[in-house]
């Protein structure tokens, strides 16, 4: 009895080992067995059948999950299915392609045929889904980065204290929006971004308008500064003639006119008002100096005329002129010359004539 049991065990172990040996994944072993005793390859047939069915099922599942994904979870699950399908295909013996195990199929009604074209198609489907999953994950990461950058830029803009900080935040905000529009087509990330992009752009539109207005106002301020610089350059180192003061006045007026186009709700209004106050002060000074120059020229010319008239009168009537008349004329000339203000083109000549008139008056006194 014991001998029988031992024989049975040894025989069973030997048979098991033999079946295991015959099912090793080597063509030189399996081919002869498949032709003479195919039933010994039943474990291999079962394994191939399972891998084939699972490969097809996993490819179909991956296709459904990835191409009709509604969330990143679907993409991750689809990627897992792709890896599983790849593993199933790797377990199918390539050397066995084109061979149909008729013995197995007659008992288990297998619906598959190991054709090379079918195998290649499955491989191609797996590769395509793998590439699609990779693209989807990259697009999703790009979407997440763009949204995080956008939110950060939005917060930075709200907390910005200077125009420079605001400009930097706006530039980052715009860049994030551009990245959202550049997501690959036919990806879940693109679909998700499309639904959010409208809201993002609606939030950004007022800021964008401010940027446009800010750029326009910056240009206006630059042009105003150009007029101001020309005015300063032209009005340096007085005295100047009335015509020169007039040109300076016009340039300050041009600068002010441009700054006044920036309204209170426009960006750059504070800067414009600061410049406007300075420019208006400069214009006021010129509006004072221009008439002062005109009056100085008028007083100088009047004093010169009176001086020439007195000289002409004295040359014609040297003996009959009364001393008091000469004194009164000199005093009138002196009063006229004293009206000429410093800082005018007439001042230097007026001082010379004044000095001469005062000396003559002193001689008569």
Q: How would you sum up this structure, described in words?
A:
By secondary structure, the chain is an all-alpha fold. The protein folds into 2 domains: 2-143, no CATH class; 233-364, no CATH class. 81% of the residues lie in helices and 0% in strands. The chain has helices at 2-22, 27-36, 42-67, 72-90, 102-108, 116-159, 163-181, 188-235, 242-259, 269-316, 323-338, 347-364. Helix 9 (242-259) runs antiparallel to helix 10 (269-316). The mean pLDDT is 82.
Supply database-style keywords.
365 residues; mainly alpha; 2 domains
Oligomer: single chain
Q: State the end-to-end distance.
A: 171 Å
Instruction: Domain count, please report it.
Output: 2
Give the amount of beta strand, in percent.
under 5%
Helix and strand succession?
HHHHHHHHHHHH
Helix content: over 70%
Low-confidence stretches: none
- Based on secondary structure, the structural category is mainly alpha
Q: How many DSSP helices?
A: 12
Return Rg in Å.
51 Å
- The number of E-state strands comes to 0
Largest sheet: none
Q: Name the shape in a single word.
A: rod-shaped
**What integer is the average pLDDT?**
82
């Amino acid at each position: 009895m014991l001998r029988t049991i031992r024989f049975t065990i040894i025989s069973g172990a030997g048979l098991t080992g033999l079946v295991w040996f015959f099912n090793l994944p080597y063509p030189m072993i399996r081919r002869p067995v498949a032709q003479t005793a195919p039933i010994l390859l039943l474990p291999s047939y079962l394994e191939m059948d399972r891998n084939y069915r699972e490969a097809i099922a996993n490819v179909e599942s991956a296709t459904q999950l990835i191409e009709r994904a509604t969330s990143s979870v679907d993409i991750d699950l689809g990627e897992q299915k792709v890896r599983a399908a790849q593993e199933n295909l790797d377990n199918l013996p390539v050397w066995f392609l084109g061979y149909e195990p008729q013995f197995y199929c007659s008992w288990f009604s297998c619906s598959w045929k190991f054709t090379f074209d079918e195998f290649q198609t499955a491989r191609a489907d797996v590769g395509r889904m793998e590439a699609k999953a990779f693209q989807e994950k990259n697009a999703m990461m790009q979407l997440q980065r763009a949204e995080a950058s956008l939110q950060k830029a939005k917060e930075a803009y709200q907390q910005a204290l200077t125009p420079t900080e605001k400009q930097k935040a706006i530039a980052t905000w715009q860049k994030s929006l551009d990245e959202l529009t550049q997501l690959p087509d036919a990806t879940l990330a693109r679909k998700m971004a499309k639904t959010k992009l409208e809201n993002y752009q609606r939030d950004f539109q007022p800021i964008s308008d401010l940027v446009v207005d800010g750029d326009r106002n910056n240009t206006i301020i630059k042009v105003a500064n150009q007029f101001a610089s020309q005015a300063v350059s032209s009005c340096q180192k007085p005295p100047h003639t009335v015509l020169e003061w007039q040109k300076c006045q016009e340039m300050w007026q041009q600068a002010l006119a441009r700054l006044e186009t920036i309204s209170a709700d426009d960006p750059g209004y504070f800067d414009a008002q600061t410049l406007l106050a300075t420019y208006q002060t400069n214009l006021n000074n010129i509006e004072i100096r221009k008439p002062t120059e005109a009056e100085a020229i008028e007083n100088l010319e009047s004093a010169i005329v009176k001086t020439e008239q007195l000289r002409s009168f004295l040359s014609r009537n040297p003996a009959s002129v009364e001393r008091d008349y000469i004194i009164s004329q000199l005093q009138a000339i002196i009063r006229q010359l004293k009206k000429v203000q410093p800082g005018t083109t007439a001042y230097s000549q007026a001082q010379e004539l004044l000095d001469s008139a005062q000396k003559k008056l002193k001689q008569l006194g």
